[in-house]
Design goal:
heterodimer, A: alpha+beta, Cytochrome Bc1 Complex, Chain D, domain 2, 4-stranded mixed β-sheet, 3-stranded mixed β-sheet, 9 helices, about 15% strand, B: mainly alpha, Cytochrome C Oxidase, Chain A, about 65% helix, about 0% strand
């Protein structure tokens, strides 16, 4: 076998000098990651963030050191063993095929590191996955393109999320339409908000402040705006001192006393349209619809088409979504919203329309001949 | 010669088709693996130009935090088609149908693949599917990224169904290629070409073929379900009607994680050929490199759910997926260490091909290391779905697969054309590419860590500076690729003539003329050692007439 013919290898002084230099560089990189001012860039808002940062420092230090060694040797070998001018065309390198001892060690040492990494990760993972007792349970719901929150004993959904400092929290996340994600970089935690599924995060807030929530799962045209950067969709979590939190909670509980606890009817539910009040509908139209829709012919567009004769226009027997122009189908668009070639319209929830409002609106639209 | 004589009595390798004469049968509907390989490459490089243009649209858009160029709708279409193009129409076809077809049958001493007609069919599905993918722009292209997670993809425009159909077809083509290559390697090796004598590029294809066969079927099923739900309303992914959005994610990643290895194992094979040739040294640890490829392929099937750590995966599943994913670092590390050791003590010819191979060692390794970070569930909870992922995947697919492809292009170009690519232009291209690539994707690591999510048409203004850095460097990288393209086109007519073996390489494809003749070999050779002993005579018998004017073999009577 060729292995038996392999020449005996001697590593020269230069090799060990290079190795020493790389070891120094690797050590410096490890020191860098131990020192790196991560919290100066991103504060650690919850207990889990500190643990995850510790794991990151370990991973980054190990990874950088390894990368320095590999690139260092590659660069050194490429320069030291490059073919020099005058080397004959048929010159060959040192004909070694393998070295069992070396291969054993470079399998075993990375295995040890992987095991260490796994143990470290599992310990932190265990802390993240196992719920502390006596938690405050909060629910976050993703919508296209904003978040709402529900609190125990508070009716309806609220637009701000407040958490008390030092109180273990269980956060249940889900979505109303498509998959969103709930990420607070300052917490280093994220869970996808999946329709029909409740995912859970557990943590204890450790630092007061206002932190942004970011969506990291593509969720439609305004996905990129689904963070605190926009005014219409403030996506923040506030970590308050317990007294401040208690005051906010009491106020919210009072304000929401008459809010409906029922989540808006599922999109496909059909409304009974009988008994609508056109007058009430006209009022709602003026406050909620007229910014985008004129009481004029189809072509008189503001954002959406004019709605005069929407149910009777022989030139437009179909609605923008292709359905027949019937009261039921108009109600459906108001319920579900619309997105398509004509632009887009928010749904019932975003427009804060009750089912009764929609019935009245349709009754009003019927009167526009 | 005895072995050859035995073989001539009707073995698979001697089932010879007569050489076609007409232009159409020779260059269009060809059943010759070499022509098909070149067809794959030309088609894939054309799609790469399109995919690259889309990439630059992305980078121009992101130069402004508010998104300067396109509406969010258009931007979403652009990155979705960019990703789909690069994965399915560029990297996979180049590495399997392209370089695989062109090189590995010759390397095992075969005259063609096992099923030449199937091979032709595999190829011709590919441009059709590619055109279908681009036709989806006319109907409103998909917008939910190359992963097309429902329910978002259910809301997508009409072209999303076209996308599903196109990718399904590409999958059919891949599956057929996988079967074809696997049977070829199992049954058509020249006498004496034992498994431990196969060149490592053949090992790369050998391990990739089953991945293509097995994994792609899961993708096909997922795409069919998506298509059926979109077109006929069968609720596979709708929780309100008993479906689950996570079903798609499981099926998609059951394919797409092995697909990551489909996109890198052949590139590993290329690097394992190029490093020894230009170091004039045997590959270090041949058996461990071959064995580690197998380990990676097997483990590759058991880690798909690490893409779903934040999706709502049961804790009992997170743990094994985390540990199994970390284990892949071990065989990958063994490969990298073996490549580095191959350089030691060599006589290194610093050709363009070698520079790309060495660049691969630096950039792929970084992508591999960040992959281990992401395997750790707690870190993934922070980094998932951000630009950190974008950085990681481009370090693997561009810094790994594409670097390998470029190394392979400079290396095997003479085998296609009989000419060398220009070295001066090539070295310029390497340095521009290396600098441009790292400048583009390195900043994305910290952009993601600091809070920039992926797939956004506009972003927090605090990230604008680094996004502009990435964009400017991406122009450098594009310039480098244009330089490679010019080089390849110019060299076709004006490159230096290469002769049959310009690199003094030892695998079988270099022992026959360039460009390679229709039958590959006048006599099927026999093999008596692995091809990497540079100090020894060539380990083949029966090649004496390959470079002479001796007549080609006679087709079997039909």
């Amino acid at each position: 076998m060729p292995e038996n013919r392999d020449p005996v290898v001697h590593l020269d002084r230069q090799f060990w000098i290079v190795t020493a230099v790389l070891a120094v560089l690797a050590a410096l990189s490890i020191l860098f990651w131990i020192w790196a001012p991560i919290t100066g860039i991103m504060p650690e808002a919850v207990d889990k963030a500190q643990q995850i940062d510790a794991l990151f420092r370990f991973l980054a230090a190990t990874g950088t050191a390894l990368w320095i060694f590999i690139c260092g040797y590659v660069l050194y070998f490429a320069l030291a063993f490059r073919r020099r001018a005058g080397t004959p065309e048929n010159a060959v390198g040192i004909q070694i095929h393998d070295n069992n001892k070396l291969e054993f060690w470079w399998t075993v040492v990375p295995t040890v590191f992987v095991v260490l990494m796994a143990i470290f990760s599992i310990r932190i993972w265990y802390g993240i996955e196992i719920a502390p007792s006596n938690t405050l349970v909060v629910e976050a719901i993703g919508h296209q393109w904003y978040y709402t929150f529900r609190y125990p004993n508070v009716n309806g959904e609220v637009k701000e999320m407040h958490l008390p400092l030092g109180q273990p929290v269980t956060l249940n996340v889900t979505a109303a339409d498509v998959i969103h994600s709930f990420w607070i970089p300052a917490m280093r935690l994220k869970q996808d908000m999946v329709p029909g599924l409740i995912n859970t995060m557990e943590f204890t807030p450790t630092r007061p402040g206002k932190y942004e929530i970011i969506c990291t799962e593509f969720c439609g045209v305004n996905h990129g705006l689904m963070h605190s950067g926009t005014e219409e969709n403030p996506a923040y979590v506030y970590i308050d001192q317990p007294a401040q939190y208690a005051a906010w909670y009491a106020r919210t509980e009072r304000e929401q006393a008459h809010a409906s606890n029922a989540i808006a009817a599922p999109a496909s539910a059909r409304l009974k349209l009988a008994g609508g009040d056109p007058k009430a509908g006209a009022q709602i139209f003026a406050t909620k619809c007229s910014a985008c829709h004129a009481v004029g012919p189809f072509d008189q567009r503001i954002v959406g088409p004019g709605l005069k004769g929407v149910l009777y226009d022989p030139a437009h027997p179909q609605l923008v979504d292709g359905d027949k122009a019937t009261p039921e189908n108009v109600a459906k668009i108001i319920q579900n919203g619309y997105k398509g070639s004509m632009g887009q319209m928010p749904n019932q929830t975003s427009n804060a329309l009750s089912n009764k409002d929609i019935v009245n609106l349709v009754a009003y639209l019927k009167t526009l001949r | 010669m005895a072995a050859t004589a035995v073989h001539a009595s009707g073995g698979l390798a001697d089932h010879i088709h007569p050489e076609p004469q007409g232009f159409v049968r020779k260059y269009v509907f060809s059943i010759d693996h070499k022509i098909i390989g070149i067809q794959y490459m030309i088609t894939a490089f054309l799609f790469m130009i399109l995919g690259g243009m889309l990439a630059e649209l992305i980078r121009v858009q992101l130069m402004k935090a508010s998104g300067g160029l396109m509406t969010p709708e258009t931007y979403n279409e652009v990155y979705s088609i960019h990703g789909s193009t690069m994965v399915w129409l560029v990297i996979i076809p180049l590495l399997t149908g392209g370089f695989g077809n062109l090189i590995f049958p010759v390397q095992i001493g075969a005259r063609d693949v096992a099923f030449p007609w199937l091979n032709m069919l595999s190829f011709w599905i590919f441009p059709v599917a590619g055109l279908m993918l681009y036709a989806s722009f006319l109907m409103g292209a998909p917008t939910a990224g190359w992963t097309e997670y429902p329910p978002m993809s259910l809301q997508g425009q009409a072209g999303t169904s076209m996308w599903a159909a196109a990718i399904f077809l590409i999958g059919v083509s891949s599956t057929m290629t996988g079967i074809n290559f696997l049977v070829t390697i199992l049954k058509m090796r020249a006498p004496g070409m034992t498994y431990t004598r196969m060149p490592l590029f053949v090992w790369g294809q050998f391990v990739t073929a089953p991945l293509l066969m097995i994994a792609t079927t899961a993708l096909g099923a997922a795409l069919a379900a998506l298509f059926v739900q979109r077109q006929f309303g069968v609720a596979f992914f709708d929780p309100a009607r008993g479906g689950s959005p996570l079903l798609w994610q499981h099926m998609f990643w059951f394919y797409s994680h092995p697909a990551v290895y489909i996109m890198i194992l052949p590139a590993f094979g290329m690097i394992s050929e190029i490093l020894p040739t230009f170091s004039r040294k045997p590959i270090f640890g041949y058996k461990m490199i071959a064995f580690s490829s197998c380990a990676i392929a097997i483990l590759g099937f058991m880690v798909w759910a690490h893409h779903m750590f934040t999706s709502g995966l049961a804790p009992a599943l997170q743990l094994p997926f985390m540990v199994l994913t970390m284990l892949i670092a071990i065989p990958t590390g063994v490969k990298i260490f073996s490549w580095v050791a191959t350089l030691w003590g060599g006589v290194i010819h610093m050709t363009t091909s070698m520079m790309f191979a060495i660049g691969f060692l630096a950039t792929f390794t970084l992508g591999g290391i960040t992959g281990v970070f992401l395997a750790a569930v707690p870190f993934d909870l922070h980094a998932h779905g951000t630009y950190f992922i974008v950085a990681h995947l481009h370090y693997v697919l561009v810094g790994g697969s594409l670097m390998g492809i470029l190394a392979g292009l400079f290396y095997w170009y003479p085998k296609m054309t009989g000419r060398l690519m220009n070295e001066t232009l090539g070295k310029w291209a390497f340095w521009l590419f290396f600098i441009g690539f790292n400048g583009t994707f390195l900043p994305m690591h910290w952009l993601g860590m600091w809070g920039q999510p992926r797939r956004v048409a506009m972003y927090d203004p605090q990230f604008q500076g680094w996004n502009q850095v990435a964009s400017w460097f991406s122009f450098v990288m594009t310039a480098a690729l244009i330089l490679v393209l010019i080089n390849a086109l110019w060299s076709m007519r004006s490159g230096k003539r290469s002769g049959h073996n310009p690199w003094n390489a030892r695998t079988l494809e270099w022992q026959i003329p360039s460009p390679m003749p229709y039958y590959n070999f006048k006599h099927v050779p026999s093999v008596f050692a692995a091809p990497y002993d540079f100090a020894e005579p060539l380990p083949y018998r029966g090649l004496e007439e390959e470079l002479t004017g001796a007549p080609p073999p006679v087709p079997a009577a039909h």
